[in-house]
Amino acid sequence: MEEGAAMTAAGPGRRTLYLAGDSTAAQKYASAAPETGWGMALPFFLRRGPALANHAVNGRSSKSFVDEGRLTAILGEIRPDDLLLIQFGHNDEKREDPARHTEPWTTYQDYLRQYVAGARARGARPVLLTPVERRRFDEGGSALPTHGDHPDAMRALAAEEGAALLDLQALTLALWDELGAEETKRYFNWTVSEQDNTHFNPPGAIAVARLVAAELLRRGVLSRGDVRRLDDAVPASWITWPRTPEEGA
Fold it and tell me: Which UniProt keywords apply (predicted)?
């Protein structure tokens, strides 16, 4: 079973937050634990109003997500007043892979426009999210940006289109810088067998989801009645990894 389309229960009349993105946001399953996408933690910060439909999938770029028909699937479901959260960049940077690579100021913006226009054509609201930052530090212990021009290209597009922007790249870079090189290991998928500086573990996913919820509130995308727990502890034990049919019950 492929990751994607993990959804919280949506009753009649409930607004839905659709999430289009990559592995940093995607639903993870038992075989991948403790790796955790921040989309798995976002419902902890949402009240009973908005539901979450997490369509983020490992390894996708703004281009490959469209080319595989995944945006079309979302646009076939999305309704007026729903939200479409759009976070891509990690895989758009991969020049060696023409199926995923996009150039920041041309094809990246062109593909993102398809998400923005598609949501608006259906009465939904697009929200652009710059890609979360990786864990990388210089010799002096300062967190380093790793995404090249892609975040700036998204910021420029948001301004051009008048779309809401959550600047996760800037927010996570500042958080990693504040925490420092050693402390940030507790937020990424660092295990005995793996030192992963891109993907999160439960504390990291919870921290990023908290940033997303707070920014959705600050930007007026969600109201105070839509969010919760912004100042409360969320235990890592709340994260669970369902099994796929292939893995068994």
Answer: Hydrolase
pTM of the model as a whole: 0.94
Burial string for 181-214 (b: 16+ CB within 10 Å, else e) reads: eeebbebbbbeeeeeeebbbbbbbbbbbbbbbbb
pLDDT tens sequence across 51-104 = 999 999 999 999 999 999 999 999 999 999 999 999 999 999 999 999 999 999
H-helix or E-strand containing 175? helix 168-183
d(CA 33, CA 61): 23
Please choose, from the candidates 86, 73, 79, the residue with its C-alpha nearest in 3D space to the C-alpha of residue 39.
86
Measured distance CA(202)–CA(32) in Å, rounded: 12
Q: For residue 228, give the 3-state DSSP assignment.
A: coil
CA distance 147 to 72: 27
Q: Which two tokens stand for residue 9?
A: 């229960």
Token pair, residue 200, equals 């999160």
CB atoms within 10 A of CB 138: 9
Q: Identify the bridge partners of residue 36 per DSSP, sorted by sequence position.
A: 200
Task: Kindly report the CATH class assigned to 6-238.
Answer: alpha beta
